């Protein structure tokens, strides 16, 4: 058993079974125990079948949780047969690299299982393209940084210790049989200003990209703006929440950007995301507001 598989196995075994699943299993077991034990062989076979189904449900659910939360686990089981469930996101690129300019870590997903193969290919192609661009731009910045560093008295040996680090990664925000929401992030150690975020929200029932307009209708800008302003007002006594008084969103005549980033969380609510410095100091990072339907 290699180290990678051992690590994946450990992560798999440490995954917590969702509370709802526990409740459903306990309910089923209780119902089974309450049945009269007639001693009939057919009845025993049914009970055995039910127990097997419960065990399979537990294993399948834990497998899916592990697949969608652990890149190591996903990578290890990628080639394994999956009965009754096709995962919608699998890590298919997961590697580290180093050259004379940068050191990098890449982990990006591949969307699978969509009926619309054209959309599936388009999303995967876009993810790959964005990653390639991010790495290329980061290396260009690193080349400029290294040139300036050498020209101001630094040495190749010293730069090797200060080499720029690049990271491309993803995070799944929601994953179930109806929707898939995740974000691709790319950043380097030169400056946080170069960090990029790309959000994907997919309706798995219709194989369509989810938009704010498709959720809230044509008036989505006004609806979300009002919701965000209300939340900002409610936070005015919270010293940890500070917003620019002259930001567009806070001015009554302005509204959120039509192309604002958003994702959908596990509660199926939209979460809009403002860029760093867009409406608040950099110390608050990217500011999020959950829009309760």
TrEMBL record:
Q: Does the keyword Transmembrane apply?
A: yes
DUF3298 domain residues: 214-291
Please indicate which superkingdom the organism of origin belongs to. Answer: Bacteria
Per UniProt, what is one Pfam family of this protein? Answer: DUF3298
User: Key word Kinase present in the record?
Assistant: no
Q: Which residues form the Deacetylase PdaC domain?
A: 98-186
What parts of the sequence cross the membrane? 53-74
Please provide the record's keywords in A-Z order.
Membrane, Transmembrane, Transmembrane helix
Mind telling me which InterPro entries this protein's record contains? DUF3298, PdaC, PdaC/RsiV-like_sf
What's the protein called, per UniProt? DUF3298 domain-containing protein
Instruction: Give the organism, scientific name.
Output: Oceanirhabdus seepicola
């Amino acid at each position: 058993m290699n180290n990678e598989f051992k690590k994946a196995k450990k992560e798999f075994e440490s995954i917590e079974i969702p509370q709802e699943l526990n409740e459903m299993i306990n309910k089923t077991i209780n119902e089974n125990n309450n049945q009269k034990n007639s001693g009939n062989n057919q009845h025993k076979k049914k009970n055995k079948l039910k127990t097997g189904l419960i065990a399979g449900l537990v294993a399948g659910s834990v497998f899916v949780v592990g697949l969608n939360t652990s890149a190591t686990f996903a990578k290890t089981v990628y080639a394994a047969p999956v009965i009754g469930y096709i995962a919608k996101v699998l890590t298919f690129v997961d590697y580290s690299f180093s050259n004379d300019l940068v050191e990098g870590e890449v982990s990006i997903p591949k969307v699978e299982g969509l009926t619309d193969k054209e959309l599936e290919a388009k999303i995967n192609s876009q993810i790959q393209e964005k990653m390639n661009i991010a790495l290329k731009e980061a290396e260009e910045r690193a080349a400029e940084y290294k040139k300036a560093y050498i020209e101001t008295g630094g040495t190749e040996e010293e730069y090797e210790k200060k080499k720029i680090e690049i990271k491309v990664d993803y995070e799944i925000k929601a994953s179930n049989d109806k929707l898939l929401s995740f974000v691709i992030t790319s950043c380097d150690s030169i400056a946080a200003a170069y960090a990029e975020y790309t959000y994907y929200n997919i309706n798995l029932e219709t194989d369509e990209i989810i938009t704010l307009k498709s959720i809230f209708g044509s008036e989505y800008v006004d609806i979300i703006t009002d919701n965000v302003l209300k939340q900002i007002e409610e936070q005015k006594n919270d010293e940890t929440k500070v917003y620019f008084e002259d930001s567009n969103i806070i001015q009554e005549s302005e509204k959120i950007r039509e192309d604002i980033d958003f994702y959908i969380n596990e509660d199926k609510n939209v979460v809009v995301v403002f860029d760093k410095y867009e409406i608040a100091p950099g110390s608050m990072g990217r500011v999020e507001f959950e829009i309760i339907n």
